[in-house]
Write a structure and sequence with these properties.
Layout: H1 2-17, H2 33-37, H3 51-54, E1 65-85, E2 121-124, E3 127-128, E4 130-132, E5 136-138, E6 143-151, E7 157-172, E8 186-195, E9 198-202, E10 207-227, H4 231-242, E11 270-295, E12 298-305, E13 308-320, H5 322-330, H6 335-344, E14 353-364, E15 367-377, E16 380-389, E17 396-401, H7 406-411, E18 422-426, E19 432-444, E20 447-456, E21 474-485, E22 489-505, E23 529-547, H8 548-576, H9 585-593
Length: 594
Amino acid sequence: MMCWKRLIILALLVVICREPAYAVFNEQIAVDARAISLANTVTADPPGLMSVHYNPAGLSLLGEGKVLGNGLVFPVIERTGRLTEDEDFEGFMGGTWGPDAPYNPEDPKSAHGGPDPLAGTEGTNSDNRMYIPFYGPIDFLVGANLGISSRKEDSKWTFAYANYAPYGGGMAHRDEGDPLRFGCKSLYLQHLIYAAPTAAYKVSRDLSVGVSFGLGQTAFGLELDQRTPNQLVALTRVIGDATKDLEIPVVSEQTLPPPFFGGGMGPYEYNTRLQMDMRDDFVPSFNLGLLWRPENWFSFGVTYQSEAKAELTGEYTWAYSEQFQRMVDWNGRTPMTMQTAGMLDLPINGVPYQTGTVTRTQKFPQRVQAGIMVKPFKPLKLLFDVHWADWSVIEEDRFVFDQDIQLFRFAKLMGYTGGNRALVVERNMKDTWSWSVGLEVQALDWLSLRAGYEKRPTSTRKTLFDALYFLPDMEFYGAGFGIHLPQDVNIDLGFGYLFNKSVKIENNESTNMNSTDFTKVVYNPYAGLDYEQETAIYMASFGITMPLEVQMELLHHQLEMGKHALHTIGGLINKLNPFAGDEPEKEKKETDAH
């Protein structure tokens, strides 16, 4: 009867908290193998040395002496985006855009006539992306953790040190025909805790508390091809084409030389490329944890993770297309255009690129996790967690450059208010509440089977959705097992699958993706199109924990085996050497010794 009561209590908690959820950006997806297999439902039953992250008080559950743990996680992100034409959208400047319109048929490079060339296309990321400290970006994802703990005999204190990556993710869309390269040609954003000294104290037999101080590195990189499907941009091309033969001797070269605006820019053509790589090597944070276990069949845990604020600094390059440079040069062609450009604060000398230093503030929000563990039967653990994250602290992305950017000086004419030196993208993120459940079955004395489910709501509003903050609402299924070997060696294997089968952003639904409002110039690369996305993340993870003396014993054994192998190889080389018997005794001894 008591077992059934425990099951009923847990079921009621799940039902009460099962509300419609909206997937958290990229937090704690790939940290620890056991946590992955339980879908992060570990606050009341923390996973060994990675308690440093999930609940520092859980270190009190580790054995006495020194314990060493390490692990690897291999995530693979797959994202496919599809673009379709909105039948109700009339197009820019009367819909006369594309290569087949009669407006200018003899010019194959003209953008007149037909629909958006991206309509009816789709793209899938070609690679994943991450940053390796002291090396740089690579097209691969891997998460690593390493930790060591120490507790003296009969001591209430446990001390530990660990490193891991609580946030991370990235991808690349580099295929020439991939339409998502205009939303994200490549991106990585990660936060690595490279040093996390931690202490846990056992207040009583039932209660433990813990604190962890994290020193981290945040890295961010972005590469983006840009186009500007916009009514006013299209107007410059229409006027440019209409005035290309409007040459008035003497007068034109003093007033408005043809074609006006240097021929203008097409709304569906590439005009600029942006590349940035930034980082902050000292980002402090801390975690607080409490673990209460009054009975063997019940425990309660709660964790507070502080906000981490990174002041990123790095290099950027703005590259400009030839048509953009022609339009800038046109502003300096005559005294009249130069005077107009001066009044409007427009550039007059086109350049192929601008490069320099860029800064940005990146916040990772404070989080609170609480959970319970119930054992209705001796071999069965049931776990339930709730999670809250303060994502609303992120109101915008603001990148500040060290010079006036020519693109922004033009964008001001269309209502952009970020200034000449700042790229400002509205985010207005929202706080997230989520829940997860997990179970662990002790199938054999040496084998534990695990599974978990987490509902991950997005912190990104649909009206501000784009191809950078790419995770929509996600469902997380985890599974795995643990193996307990002699000498207190524990091996964990975990597998995770996160997915969203479809998120749809209809034309004009997001002002960061497909708004046709001509004042929303930063940044709507798919204006006039409907967007649909499928997202999946696959993970395989491995972890091992053992007493340090066992690790040292294994290492000593491996060294002895290596020494023996070298000695054997050396003996074989001497036997095969045809001149070995002719060596003087002294030289032979030196050779053998070597």
